Structures are given as structure tokens and as C-alpha cells.
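Human: Respectfully, please carefully check these C-alpha cells:
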Amino acid sequence: MLYLIGLGLNDEEDLTLKALNILKQCDKIYAEFYTNVWQGNMKNLEKLIGKPLNIIEREKVESMLLINEAKDKTISLLIPGDPLSATTHYELIALAKQNNVNYHIIHAPSIHTAIAETGLDLYKFGRITTLPLFQKSYQPSSPYQVIESNQRIGYHTLVLLDIKMTISQALEQLLALEQTQKKNIILNSAKVLACAKLGSNDKKIIYNTIENIIKQDIKDIPAVIIIPGRLNDKEKEYIEMIN
């Protein structure tokens, strides 16, 4: 059996009771941290489970390693957030099906629902996009295009950030895309939401202009940006109370 188990948004206390009981019965436990930042403590997690953890890189997650071990053992892979928030884990499920390996998903708190804490209606979010750290030869415009498409129909856009990216870096990159795309969507004066470390006691939710948020230079990660679409009266009322 192969278990894909979510670690939740913050630390080891986000593990569900079901997940904890399963982990205590596993023959071997792996964990990956390349898809998201985890704020917990490895030693505390191992103490809670009563077993050692093996950190594994993306290449091995997407190889046959876990599948082969799960053929005659009970194996689990711990994943920050919810196991199915990152598309890379669908590849692992496909491998399990192709090789007749039983698998089970243990869900956990995810950024995709935690953003409701901003007061925005989850039903009004459009397509999600991911903003990578720009390189000299790699500055994709697809995040801007997703935002533009959502704005056209009044939907909010959740922008997931590279795990090493700060809020200010992300907004500066979006402004840079505006300079090349020139659709007047990402402007210094535009109000957006910036969220960092949702699910923790020191979470940050900020609603302000892009210019003012950049000046705050928030270093906390993981973080996301939300570009609001058309706001209804309830959303306006709640969002204006944030700051």
C-alpha cells in the first residue's frame, strides 16, 4: 500500500488523527519538501510518529522507488499542504495504477481553501496560476495571461509563488510583465491581497496597493498573491476591514 499524506499548511500539529494512526503502522515513511515550504520541526514530527523520516527529492518521487517498495510494504509519502495540490503527485498515482499498487490519499488543510480567510468568495476564483522566479532566459508571460483572462470575466486570481519568492519579488515581477504586456491590469495603484504563512499563528493578510505592499518588504514565506476580480457587497465589506 502507498499512502499520500498531507502535512497541512503549517506544522506537525496539522496532521489529522487518521494520518497519524496510519503513519504509526507504516514500514517506511518518506517526505518531500520541494513543492512547498513546511514550517514544522522534523524532530518533533519523528517523535510524534515514533519513526524516522526519509526526505526524498523530486526525481525519486517520480521514479519507481516508492512504487516498487509499496508492492510488498506499507509506504507513505508526506507532502506539505494537501497531497493533490501539486500536479507532480498525479504522476505517482498514475504509476501506482499502472503497476497495480494500492494507494490511498489522506487529505489535509490547503492554500486552496485557506484563502477564504480573506473574505473573498471561493466560488468566484478563476484559473489558478504559478509565478516562478524569473531568470534571464526564463520570464514566462502565462501568469499575466491567466490574470487577464480572469479579470475579463470578473473572477479573482490566486497566484501561487515559487517557494523561495517573497511577496515584494512577486509583485515586482508582475509589474515587469505589465511593462511587456501593456494591458493595464497590474498597476502600482491597483489594490491586491498578499497572504503569507496562512494557517500559522503569525499569518499575514494584507490588502493594499501594489506600491504600498512592495514598500513593506515582507519576507515571510510561503506566500501567495490574490488579484481581486469584481467584488460583491459582502466581499467589499470584509476586505476593507483587513487593514
Summary: Residues 2-109 form a domain with the Cobalt-precorrin-4 Transmethylase; domain 1 fold (CATH 3.40.1010.10). The longest strand covers residues 191-196. DSSP finds ten helices and ten strands in the chain.
